[in-house]
Design a protein that fits this description.
The chain is α+β, with helices and mostly antiparallel strands and 316 residues long. It has two domains: 115 residues, Sandwich (Immunoglobulin-like); 129 residues, no CATH class. The protein contains five helices and 14 strands.
């Protein structure tokens, strides 16, 4: 005889039992779900990697014209290489401010970087866009007479992109209002740039005033003493159609100078010439009294430097 015992469980105990069974089923299935998830991630990774394409460099450098005048003497002997710059950085830039060479050798191994007594290996220039392409030129020492190519040309190029926001565009209003007086401007003072509008009459008058004083004008003497002591006045014109500026720019930060009327319209000049500290600009008619001076200034924020390297440049 078999006795069957039917045990009745309370609802609370039944819920606990059902929860334990449900947890056991999840534990059995979880490794399979985890493996499927890992497999999906693993298979997706190569697709994401292949979809990423490397962005082009901000600047690419190619060679344009090459001039090579090799001779045994120093007169007329030179080697010049035109560099053409393309890419986003070159498209945004207005001009090339400087090229600094770190390596330049010909096919025989001769060092072509100019020495201190030659043309500077690091030189300032103002080469801009020509035919839609930014270009510049580097001057090298004479290659060996046996050289057939420039094996390596390597260095850094500094691009100039001026805006009012980065301090690269500066306006001096009423530049003609105070002849023979230093221009007071915080941006110029920050970079130790001394600037003065000159007329022959104002120059002669200021020079006589300084010479008549026993100790001279100490304020002017510190910045412009040598200007009024020398024969600088002989360089100036009596013409009312010209503007003469004295410029002392020790770091060569001034890229360009232009003149505009009071409304900002550029004044077209006939001709201009300059020395290290003097610039003369002539116009068809006398410039208006409210003439403004527009300065392009190489501030750190307006400059960006990029490395470049070009190899195996054939010599003509």
């Amino acid at each position: 005889m078999v006795f069957t015992l039917n045990r009745k469980r309370s609802p609370k105990k039944r819920k606990k039992r059902e929860f334990r069974l449900h947890a056991a089923m999840i534990a059995i299935m979880k490794p399979k779900l985890l493996n499927q998830t890992c497999l999906a991630i693993f298979l997706a990774l190569p697709i994401a990697t292949n979809a990423q394409t490397p962005s082009p460099p901000p600047i690419q450098v190619s060679v344009g014209d090459v001039t090579d005048n090799r001779s045994t003497g120093t007169f007329g002997s030179e080697c010049k290489v035109e560099l053409k710059l393309t890419g986003d950085a070159a498209a945004d830039a207005q001009s090339v401010r400087r090229v600094q060479l770190t390596d330049a050798t010909d096919s025989t191994g001769r060092d072509l970087i100019p020495k201190k007594d030659d043309e500077m290996g690091s030189h300032f220039m103002n080469f801009g866009q020509t035919s839609g392409t930014l270009s510049t030129e580097v001057k090298l020492r004479n290659p060996s007479r046996n050289a057939t190519a420039i094996k390596m040309l390597k260095g850094q190029v500094e691009l100039f992109n001026p805006t009012e926001a980065n301090g690269g565009l500066l306006t001096i209003k009423g530049i003609l209002q105070h002849p023979a007086e230093p221009v007071q401007n915080p941006a110029l003072a920050k970079y130790n740039i001394q600037l003065m509008y000159l007329t022959k009459e104002a120059y002669d008058a200021k020079k006589k005033a300084i010479e008549s004083q026993q100790n001279g004008d100490q304020k002017l003497g510190a910045a412009f003493g040598e200007l009024f002591k020398g024969m600088f006045g002989g360089m100036m014109s009596d013409s009312k159609n010209s503007i003469e500026l004295y410029i002392n720019d020790p770091d060569k930060r001034i890229i360009d100078l232009k003149f505009a009327d009071g409304q900002g319209k550029e004044l077209k000049s006939n001709q201009s010439w300059s020395t290290d500290n003097f610039k003369s600009t002539s116009f068809e008619t006398p410039p208006p009294a409210d003439t403004q001076l527009k300065i392009q200034l190489a501030t750190p924020e307006s400059l960006k430097t990029y490395s470049f390297q070009v190899e195996n440049i054939a010599l003509p």
